[in-house]
């Protein structure tokens, strides 16, 4: 197993890697739309979603992959009905015609306290 790390995406505060690679599969750990340099979550929902995809792209690139290698995305949203339409617009703009499998759930309890993240994703990609 290879641990992936890049300064182009925020680190986790605990013993959690940004991603790992095993057998050609890339598993991205819980990822947020935080700005890497400051760890701040953007105030605007679209800016947060865009930052999340910037972070995902950076981690995948560090693993030798890209968004077209993504196979599945699990999404947690703090307010699914309010924020999903904007998230979907950013999703389509970033993935284009590529359509990985996906699930989305709503939960008020994720991320760091007082951070206010609207989204968290876990991603599986294959660079076979």
From TrEMBL:
Pfam families per the UniProt record, alphabetical: Ribonuc_L-PSP
A cellular component term, taken from the record's GO annotations: cytosol
One GO MF term attached to the UniProt entry: deaminase activity
PANTHER family: 2-IMINOBUTANOATE/2-IMINOPROPANOATE DEAMINASE RIDA, 2-IMINOBUTANOATE_2-IMINOPROPANOATE DEAMINASE
Protein name from the UniProt record: Deaminase
Organism: Geodermatophilus sabuli
Organism phylogeny: Bacteria, Bacillati, Actinomycetota, Actinomycetes, Geodermatophilales
């Amino acid at each position: 197993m290879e641990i992936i790390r890049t300064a182009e995406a925020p680190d986790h505060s605990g013993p959690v890697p940004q991603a790992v690679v095993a057998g050609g599969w890339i598993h991205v750990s819980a990822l947020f739309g935080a700005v890497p340099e400051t760890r701040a979550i953007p105030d605007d929902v679209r800016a947060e979603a865009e930052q999340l995809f910037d972070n995902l792209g950076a981690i995948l690139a560090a693993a030798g992959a890209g968004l077209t290698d993504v196979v599945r995305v699990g999404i947690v949203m703090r307010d699914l009905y309010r924020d999903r339409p904007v998230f979907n617009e950013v999703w389509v703009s970033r993935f284009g015609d590529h359509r990985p499998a996906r699930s989305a759930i709503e939960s008020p309890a994720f991320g760091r306290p007082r951070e206010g993240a609207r989204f968290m994703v876990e991603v599986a990609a294959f660079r076979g």
